[in-house]
Specification:
globular, 3-stranded antiparallel β-sheet, alpha+beta, 2 helices, 35% helix, 3 strands, 62 residues
């Protein structure tokens, strides 16, 4: 879980451009993501084979 928190922090700080999560890791990652104070700034895009690519936006979604 700490790994996911670090990944979100790096994404938020602009150290990395995106995070790729595999379908088998989704529920564990999502638990950390929804608890994050800037949750609405993260955007997930579903790809083939259950992969999800997350990016960080300066403007939160509504």
């Amino acid at each position: 879980m700490e790994r996911y928190e670090n990944m979100l922090k790096q994404l938020q700080n602009g150290e990395i451009g995106s995070i790729e999560i595999q379908k088998e890791d989704f529920y564990e990652f999502r638990e950390i993501l929804v608890a994050h104070p800037l949750f609405k700034h993260f955007r997930g895009e579903a790809k083939q084979n259950g992969r999800i690519i997350y990016t960080f936006n300066e403007i939160p979604r509504s």
